[in-house]
Amino acid sequence: MGMPWLASRSFGHGVHPPEHKEETRDLPIRSFPFASELVVPLLQHLGAPAIPEVREGQRVARGEILARPDGFMSVAVHAPVSGTVRSIRPAPSITGRMLPAIYLETRPGDTQEVIPGVACSLESATPEDVRNAIQAAGIVGLGGAAFPTHAKLRIPEGTKVDTLILNGAECEPYLTTDHRVMLEQAPDLFLGIRYLLRAIEASRAILAVEKNKADASQHLRRHKPDDLALELVELEVKYPQGAEKLLIRSLLGREVPSGGLPSAVGALVVNVATAAEIGRLLPHGRGIIERVVTLGGPGVERKGNYRIPIGTPLRFLLEQVGVSGDVDEVFLGGPMMGVAASSLEIPLTKGISGVIVYAREQGDSEESRVYPCIRCGQCLAACPMYLDPATLMRLSRHGDYSTMVDRYHLMDCFECGCCAYVCPSHIPLVQHFRIAKAGIRRGLSA
Amino acid sequence: MSLVIVVLALAALMFLLTSVLVAAHRWLHVVEDPRIDQVEEMLPHANCGACGLPGCRPFAEALVRGEVSPSGCTVGNAAQHRRIATFLGVDVGVSERRVARLACAGGTNVARSRARYRGLGSCGAAALVSGGGKGCFWGCLGLADCAAACDFDAIYMDAHDLPRVIEAACTACGDCVRACPKDLFSLQPVEQPMWVACASRASGDAILEECEVACTACARCAVDAPGQISMEGGLPKLDYSGGSIPRGAIERCPTGAIGWFEKERGFCVGASARRIIRRGGRPDGAT
To answer: What is the value of ipTM here, to two decimals?
Structure first.
């Protein structure tokens, strides 16, 4: 047997949820109207919130800097629309905390022309220049984790990254944003890869897509510049193929050590949408003011891939595309790893790649009941990190978080949800793990 | 013959091991103050950790060493404290009795839900799903993590899914403080009856859309008790360093977010607070 994942370009375990991509995969990216008021959070990424540069009542132009990064783990925030700063006050967020945000009133009748910034020229930029430009452009991982990209690109001392991996797996059901970006923004993507290679001083790049996006990989292969050292690889369609560590395992056969960074095995993974955004923004010195989002799910009437201004409230978003029936569940991100929104006042942030809506249907009121664990072991067979979800769940219920970390490698769990997906007892396993992780952050353990 | 060898060998082994035990008893014996056991017997055996030590045994050891006073055990009553004090010949000591108090009054009758939470029936889990479904992001989720954490049955959930603390049963062990994902519980001296039953950091009347008993940061209380109540982050901050705060300061609170704990009646609000009987209805017509 040896290493089966090398042969099939995949990883062990995992699940095959229904893809649901056929409804939006062929729909081109469309632009989206401005809401009358945009809510731009100062913290849309992992790290520290940005420091506002504007005051209440101030008029700002589209693309203007609203807030500057506060330290290394922070990125700039730009105005997604020309308008007036109404207030700076806490707004709801998917993290569950109220986070300070800039409330921006759209100025009607404005041209909404994006003001130019200081360009970062690929010809003359040093790796440091590229990283700084990426931070100034407010770029974070657009795949969902929203990790500041410039921080990822600073390789720890003493390690060398030989391979840049472009993540076009997009294994979450429903989501088709990366797919469309690869088809429609190939030149941006190639330019972004050049910037990224410069930033980490690597020479080789691999772009990986799942086999269900063969049109994208063919399109990229056809248009790839000859001087770009980019290899295109098709992966088996399996969830969670796009997870960073699994992607490295699938492509390079390297195992990122527990608690370590991909750079420890000489790899670095960047989402294709992030790379395309770098290629689109850096030559003009602009910042992220909008992102491509898949609006899908059974509840959405005009499904599609839209380029939506950052800060657009979910309520406006759903009003524009129409919702059939009563909104029942709204997922930010995909249905597997996404978070259910508790409020339609939550604004779109840089890390949200999809808004998936389930509407309540007639007679569909049956609640899924949770049954006790029958120790069937299906979760063990599904976990791509080879953890023991059933035991972790039992430990979490008893509050024994330290054993979960020390003996059962809780911190290697990246909450892909495969275990909960296959559980015949419908046990919300990931919720148990998230409670444990939150407990550890709060310094609790039995 | 072989039987004799076996018996002799076992006898020799027995003798050897016995000598080890005897030697251990003689030279490795740890002299422990016999009072520790006796004092431990007099403690409530709750092992709750409210005294600040890991459990009753370490507390008993500290008592015998004279590092703490009997009243440091918040679970024990005065008679138990006296008994230990008499036994050890020390002072009972004074301890400020504290109880757990909840900084939220937004039960289902007065606070709005934005979304219905489905999932694991635990506040800790709900709080991680974009904050839970409550209209007020700071408010109590009502899934009873605190009541489950309380070893003394001092917390129960009322008809509106809001935890209530039975002050007489509360030992201030702090388990609820740790259990609440919204950090709404804190341990307060019983002698300080004024309390802000709200954690909303929002300023202005907009929050009333979400919860009718929220603090709107109008600062009337701060005006009525200058120097003792100040507004900080959209909430009144009580300062007891200058002695007790006059009860009059709660009277003009329009929502009853700031109130007064009375022994018999529990949390009481001021005269100007709207009387809210049920959501949507304000029978007294007050604004």
So the answer is: 0.85
